[in-house]
């Protein structure tokens, strides 16, 4: 039976303590039994797990999203190493890593689930395993370019960390990645995923129009305004262990300009400029919540509030708000005869809103200003994603050439 090796980020320190004290069976009986069974074939499997926990603890301190991403990739890698290759992850060679990549492309059907499943649940003080959990979700294209890239990144970072910790002295991942037949070299022209003008008009407009009948949709409207109008990542709006976005993070300088201080990737703070249009929606949202029109410096109210309970919202909860607005827009698009736009909206994610706002504003704003509001470390990143100056110039110079 396949067993989830890692619980949630909050539970990780308990799992580490149980492994160190050899008391895993008291809280994780199925996992303890699994490790003992695997240990009969791979003697170093428990040491592998200890190191995996150590790695995830270090990287999980950055953000829960980083923890989840690395957990999912490395958990199934360890399971494959023990159950298929029957080796410690630190005994794997180049050809083993290549075999794992082949497995990623076509995993065994027993490793697939048709939906996202929870891993462990409390039952009278014991964390009980969900027997329906599997390492992979069954999709038409499991090993997309994005999935393979995420896998290679996770393995590379893991082995680099292991070398620093003197757990191993070899990292075969870069050479396997370089020669992988499954990775496609990206085109020079890579246009970010964005909503069309009509799709954005419906997503925002339908949500706004329905607020009169469903006042709670004001929260959706404000979220959409933040993600598109301020180019925010969804994680930057959410409640995190080291950062809680609150209303006092809005601030005004001596010249009357408004900013929002947020924590972005790599725990870097930045101040995003607010437009006059956004401020009108900020006032609207605050009045709906029974707050003064503009924030005060001492306000501890969460930026995006929960209808029930206290505190801010998680990434998953905010994503659900965005999806609700997408679904409402799709219904209206279909009713109005825009079938193609409705179908294309099926693939949209919350991150498309950031790309949509930045792509639109790239036509009018100075590149440096846009780059700083986006939180890019280099202007070249902004240019590459949203401007693509060289590509446009190349297209202009070539348009008149003769056949």
UniProtKB/TrEMBL annotation:
Keywords: DNA integration, DNA recombination, DNA-binding
Subcellular location: Cytoplasm
Main location per the UniProt record: cytoplasm
InterPro entries: DNA_brk_join_enz, Integrase-like_cat_sf, Integrase_catalytic, Integrase_recombinase_N, Tyrosine_recombinase_XerCD
PROSITE patterns on file: TYR_RECOMBINASE
Domain annotation Tyr recombinase: ranges: 190-400
DNA-binding among keywords: yes
Domain of life: Bacteria
Protein name: Tyrosine-type recombinase/integrase
Species per Swiss-Prot/TrEMBL record: Pseudoalteromonas shioyasakiensis
């Amino acid at each position: 039976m396949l067993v989830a090796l890692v619980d949630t980020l909050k539970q990780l320190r308990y799992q580490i303590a149980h492994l160190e004290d050899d008391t895993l069976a008291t809280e994780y009986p199925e996992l303890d039994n699994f490790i003992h069974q695997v240990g009969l074939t791979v003697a170093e499997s428990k040491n592998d797990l200890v190191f995996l926990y150590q790695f995830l603890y270090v990287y999980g301190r950055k953000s829960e999203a980083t923890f989840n991403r690395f957990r999912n990739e490395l958990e199934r890698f360890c399971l494959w190493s023990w159950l298929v290759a029957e080796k410690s992850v630190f005994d794997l060679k180049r050809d083993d890593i290549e075999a794992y990549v082949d497995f990623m492309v076509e995993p065994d059907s027993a490793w697939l689930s048709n939906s996202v499943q929870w891993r462990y649940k409390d039952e009278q003080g014991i964390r009980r395993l969900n027997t329906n959990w599997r390492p992979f979700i069954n999709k038409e294209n499991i090993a997309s370019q994005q999935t393979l890239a995420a896998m290679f990144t996770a393995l590379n970072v893991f082995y680099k960390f292991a070398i620093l910790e003197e757990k191993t002295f070899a990292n075969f991942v870069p050479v396997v990645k370089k020669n992988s037949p499954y990775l496609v070299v990206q085109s020079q022209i890579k246009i970010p995923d964005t909503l069309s003008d009509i799709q954005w008009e419906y997503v925002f407009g339908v949500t706004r129009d329905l607020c009169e009948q469903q006042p709670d949709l004001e929260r959706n409207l404000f979220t959409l305004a933040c993600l598109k109008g301020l180019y925010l990542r969804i994680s930057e709006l959410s409640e995190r262990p080291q950062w809680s976005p609150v209303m006092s993070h809005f601030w005004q300088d001596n010249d009357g300009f408004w900013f929002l201080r947020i924590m972005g990737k790599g725990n870097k703070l930045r101040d995003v400029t607010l437009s006059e249009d956004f401020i009108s929606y900020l006032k609207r949202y605050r009045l709906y919540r029974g707050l003064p029109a503009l924030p005060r410096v001492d306000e501890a109210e969460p930026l995006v509030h929960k209808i029930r309970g206290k505190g801010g919202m998680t990434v998953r909860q905010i994503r659900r708000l965005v999806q609700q607005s997408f679904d409402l827009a799709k219904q209206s698009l279909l009713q109005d005869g825009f079938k193609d736009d409705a179908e294309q909206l099926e693939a949209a994610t919350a991150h498309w809103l950031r790309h949509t706002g930045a792509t639109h504003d790239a036509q009018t704003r100075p590149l440096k200003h846009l780059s700083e509001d986006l939180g890019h470390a280099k202007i070249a990143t902004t240019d590459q994603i949203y401007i693509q100056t060289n590509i446009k110039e190349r297209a202009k110079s070539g348009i008149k050439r003769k056949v």
